Amino acid sequence: MSELTVTQVAKTFNGAAALLPLDLSVADGTFCIMLGSSGSGKSTLLRIIAGLEEPDTGSIRIGARDVSKLPVEKRNIGFVFQNYALFPHLSVLSNVMYGLRARRAPRAGAKRKAEEMLGLVGLAGFETRSPAQLSGGQQQRVALARALVTSPELLLLDEPLSALDRKIRGEMQRELKRIHRETGLTTVMVTHDQEEAMDLGDQVMMLDRGAVQQDDSPEAMYREPGNRFVAQFLGGQLLGRGVVRASGGAPRVEVGSLSVRAAQDDLADGAAVDVLVMAESVRIVGDGSADAFPGTLASLSFFGPFARAEITAGELTVPVTMLSQEAEALRVGDGVRFTIAPEGLHAFASDLERIE
Q1: What's a single GO MF annotation on this record (predicted)?
Q2: Which of 81, 207, 286, 343 could form a disulfide with 40 if both were Cys (CB 3.0 to 4.6 A apart)?
């Protein structure tokens, strides 16, 4: 078993807190994503797990082993760096073999295992090439094969897709999912991209300023963000400050000229709230639709199969994401009617200093 347990780990640099004391538990075979913006502490935590940084406090366990005081080479982990860190003077095969040879594995066995890993990542036949002869996506696969070849208990990935263009990044996301499915290896990956996190993760831990904001499944985090920061990071846009009306039936949130049914059942009547909405939960509908609001189409942009728009409704600006074919007949300035799905509306206790 190779579950990961992080207990009360904290880290400061030059007196500034990079990580506040935090816990993380990743079950055996889980693909865990650490999600957050630059400076959130996610890469620091990953390096502490790897043994590349020493925490000020706390402990790290991999399976039954406390590895807190062990050097990186004793932790039995695989690490893929953001810049891949391949040896330019070595062939692809020699790069992958490097970890095994450093452990004094017999050359024939190391070569056989390295070839097996290259096959796993789809690079069979590339053994004699140099890193300079490979694309970014191929270099990333070599780095992944090198991390896997030593049969680690834990695989750590530090923003491995950030340097790739969109098309290659999508391909590598599918490859990472396939490799994880085939190996069953406990994996922890750092990213700032919420789409990557939602696509790849079985578990997502979101960090901000060194603190855990939410640790959940991607589905639960998206449906029920734990606070305003999480909701905004996942694409929620602030409508404004509103008030809850929860007496006499299902709770509604009044914001501007809108009164929208809320899916949250823990809202207190009369509470002042910051109201956020997910653009994909807003739909432009026909005149006969019940519970629809009037507005004016203020902007419209096309992005391949999807279109993004904004609707003004009184003093509010409401975001919309829809299929391009649904938007083809729309024009800026059109009067429209729209609905907001309750599950796409999120209300949090107001903090006037944080309203943007």
Answers
A1: ATP binding
A2: 207
CATH of the domain at 278: 2.40.50.100
Task: Identify whether residues 133 and 44 lie together within a single domain.
Answer: yes
pTM, two decimal places: 0.89
303 part of a folded domain: yes
Mean pLDDT by 10 residues, the chain (356 residues): 93 94 97 95 96 96 95 93 87 92 86 94 94 91 93 94 83 91 95 93 97 96 93 93 86 92 87 94 86 94 94 95 94 95 91 42
If asked whether residues 252 and 171 sit together in one domain, one would say no
192 with 86, same domain: the answer is yes
Cα separation, 191 vs 213, in Å, equals 15
Residue 175: domain span:
4-223
For residue 324, count other CB atoms closer than 10 A to its CB. Answer: 12
The token duo for 149 is 């070849």
Residue that is last in its domain, among 166, 201, 223 = 223
277 neighbors 294 (Cβ within 8 angstroms): no
Amino acid identity, position 192: H
Cβ atoms 134, 163 nearer than 8 A: no
Task: Note whether 244 and 146 are same-domain residues.
Answer: no
Which residue's structure tokens are 């606070």?
A: 227
Please report the pLDDT score of residue 229 as a whole number: 93
Q: Are residues 219 and 289 in the same domain?
A: no
